[in-house]
Amino acid sequence: MSSLSFDAATNTIVDSHHDVDGHDMPAVVHFFFVVEEIGRDGILVRKVYASPTDPYLLAKNLPEFQLKHDVWPEKFGIRPADPNSSASVAQHVYSSRQYPSDYVSASSTFPNGSPRFTGKTIFIDIEKAKAAGAKIVSTDEIVAALQKYKETIPHRAKKVDQIIEWVRDIDKEVLLKGSVPAKAVFTPTSYAVTRNIVRVLKVSRIFAIGFTAYDLEQAADESIRQDSIKPIRTEIVRQSGGWGSAMAGARIGAAVGAACGIETGPGALITGAVGGIVFGVAGYFAADWIMHNLPQ
Predict the structure, then answer these.
(1) CA–CA gap between residue 28 and residue 272 (Å, rounded)
(2) What does pTM read for this prediction?
(3) How big, in percent rounded to 5, are the helix, strand and coil portions of the chain?
(4) Distances (CA, A) of 272 to 69, 78, 130, 220
(5) 69 CB burial (10 A radius; 0-12, 13-18, 19+)
(6) Predicted confidence (pLDDT) per residue in 37-67, tens digit
């Protein structure tokens, strides 16, 4: 008699009932660790005000909500001076005070940024900024815009040429058009800590799925009896809820496939090592497709 079975009293009376308390259903939770690197598309450097009492910042007479973006972008994100502005790239770079715009200046010189500016250094993850809708204007694009702009103000040509030298040779200036969320902004300390966590632990997201051990065991036995992956595959997909989260399924599949490979035998089935097959495809095509299309 297994640990999941027991004796129960019976009688010969028709339609009689006898309540029996069953065993607690054992379950096992599988944790899947997925790496999410930062700075894969590069890092931009920006200098911001170190204090809300900075005299240059106070002179701008900004509303309180904008002041927070200018001093603590790592908490509140980066917001351009005028999100609704029609000012051009060249006008912003020529004089951001004269032409408040929906552009934000940064430098591609990592990690120190432009030597012409002082203040608190922050790092901007380009990939995360672009994912949030920000657009990148490269140094070459800025220089080209300034060259054209110079033709419209020939009496200021010498000043524009000087700005071009700063942009190209010293600042390595890059513009961000639009707002940047706080999750894309790091201080040097938070950047170093995050990089170390990724490097050492190789994890930034943890997915946990609880599987009912008894049902998995029965499905595994059936798979072995049929010499087919379909019963255990169907049970895993059923227990994991059909994988409504496509991205989670895809990421878990990639992680498990790389970490575990594909194993065979009853032990591998029960421990969930088949996840490398099931989760990866489930994330993209959903449970029904898997149960009817993967090899038998």
Answers:
(1) 10
(2) 0.58
(3) 50, 15, 35
(4) 46, 44, 36, 10
(5) buried
(6) 677 789 999 999 999 999 988 888 888 889 9
